[in-house]
């Protein structure tokens, strides 16, 4: 018996396979890379497209080779020329150059000048990351990103801090080696990551100390223990963030590149 004739138009189309539908939906998720990086201030969309053509942009470690790629700004690791770009916009982090005499606290019941006075109402929920002694000046980070603040301050992440110290006396030639080997203090040994003599004049020297210790007065106590009492101490860097030419008392918001570098430093 012959089959009844049929028209293609009468046939019902089969529903798409679930796997095909999932791939289609995934392709529509996220935002175009050009738009994300333009919003982050990297450059116009055209500039970003040129960067893609030049192989300067990577996503999650892979160089982007096609235009129009979609990304998730909150999950994907996007880097330009190897430097990660932080894309979150729900938190803020500031660098401030704390003057000597200011207390590292958000408030003080004795009405002494504080970091909280300096930042005012820049953003809700700000906290200082670690502390600087009252007489120590220089770079201090302030943020409302609780996880970033926790990791930067926690000893297990070994975030390096860089200090310039003005000391009395001449610096022995073998001091760097001794400090890298470790010096015993009352509360245990301490080692520096690096040490160098920056300048010396009229019985005074300026030295740079890099270490990831966070104990109270650690730089002053360390240098005093090797016969170099500190008369002035300035922190010039926390991890990849540097004080540069910020004037005393000034505040600036970290760039997205700096935030990305910080996130990398503490494994975020």
Automatic annotation (TrEMBL):
<dbReference type="InterPro" id="IPR006145">
    <property type="entry name" value="PsdUridine_synth_RsuA/RluA"/>
</dbReference>
<dbReference type="InterPro" id="IPR036986">
    <property type="entry name" value="S4_RNA-bd_sf"/>
</dbReference>
<dbReference type="GO" id="GO:0000455">
    <property type="term" value="P:enzyme-directed rRNA pseudouridine synthesis"/>
</dbReference>
<dbReference type="Pfam" id="PF00849">
    <property type="entry name" value="PseudoU_synth_2"/>
</dbReference>
<dbReference type="InterPro" id="IPR020103">
    <property type="entry name" value="PsdUridine_synth_cat_dom_sf"/>
</dbReference>
<dbReference type="InterPro" id="IPR002942">
    <property type="entry name" value="S4_RNA-bd"/>
</dbReference>
<dbReference type="GO" id="GO:0003723">
    <property type="term" value="F:RNA binding"/>
</dbReference>
<protein>
    <recommendedName>
        <fullName>Pseudouridine synthase</fullName>
        <ecNumber>5.4.99.-</ecNumber>
    </recommendedName>
</protein>
<keyword id="KW-0413">Isomerase</keyword>
<dbReference type="Pfam" id="PF01479">
    <property type="entry name" value="S4"/>
</dbReference>
<feature type="compositionally biased region" description="Acidic residues">
    <location>
        <begin position="1"/>
        <end position="11"/>
    </location>
</feature>
<feature type="region of interest" description="Disordered">
    <location>
        <begin position="1"/>
        <end position="29"/>
    </location>
</feature>
<dbReference type="GO" id="GO:0120159">
    <property type="term" value="F:rRNA pseudouridine synthase activity"/>
</dbReference>
<keyword id="KW-0694">RNA-binding</keyword>
<feature type="compositionally biased region" description="Basic and acidic residues">
    <location>
        <begin position="18"/>
        <end position="29"/>
    </location>
</feature>
<dbReference type="GO" id="GO:0005829">
    <property type="term" value="C:cytosol"/>
</dbReference>
<comment type="similarity">
    <text>Belongs to the pseudouridine synthase RsuA family.</text>
</comment>
<dbReference type="InterPro" id="IPR050343">
    <property type="entry name" value="RsuA_PseudoU_synthase"/>
</dbReference>
<dbReference type="InterPro" id="IPR018496">
    <property type="entry name" value="PsdUridine_synth_RsuA/RluB_CS"/>
</dbReference>
<dbReference type="InterPro" id="IPR000748">
    <property type="entry name" value="PsdUridine_synth_RsuA/RluB/E/F"/>
</dbReference>
<feature type="domain" description="RNA-binding S4">
    <location>
        <begin position="31"/>
        <end position="91"/>
    </location>
</feature>
């Amino acid at each position: 018996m012959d089959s009844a004739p049929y028209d293609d138009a009468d046939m019902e189309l089969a529903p798409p396979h679930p796997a095909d539908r999932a791939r289609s939906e995934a392709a529509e998720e996220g935002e175009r890379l050009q738009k994300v990086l333009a919003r982050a201030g990297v450059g116009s969309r055209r500039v970003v497209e040129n960067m893609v053509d030049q192989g300067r942009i990577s996503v999650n470690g892979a160089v982007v080779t096609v235009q129009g790629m979609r990304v998730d700004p909150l999950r994907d690791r996007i880097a330009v020329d190897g430097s990660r770009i932080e894309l979150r916009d729900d938190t803020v982090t500031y660098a401030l150059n704390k003057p000597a005499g200011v207390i590292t606290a958000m408030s003080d019941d004795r009405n002494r000048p504080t970091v909280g006075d300096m930042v005012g109402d820049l953003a809700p929920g700000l906290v200082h990351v670690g502390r600087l002694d009252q007489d120590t000046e220089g770079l201090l980070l302030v943020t409302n990103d609780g996880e970033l603040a926790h990791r930067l301050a926690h000893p297990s992440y070994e975030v390096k801090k860089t200090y310039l110290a003005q000391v009395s006396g001449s610096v022995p030639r073998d001091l760097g080696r001794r400090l890298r080997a470790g010096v015993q203090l009352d509360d245990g040994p301490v080692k520096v990551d690096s040490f160098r003599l920056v300048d010396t004049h009229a019985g005074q020297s300026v030295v740079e100390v890099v270490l990831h210790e966070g104990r109270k007065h650690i730089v002053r106590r360390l240098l005093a223990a090797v016969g170099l009492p500190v008369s002035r101490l300035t922190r010039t860097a926390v991890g990849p963030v540097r004080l540069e030419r910020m004037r005393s008392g000034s505040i600036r918001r970290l760039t997205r590149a700096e935030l990305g570098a910080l996130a990398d430093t503490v494994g975020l």
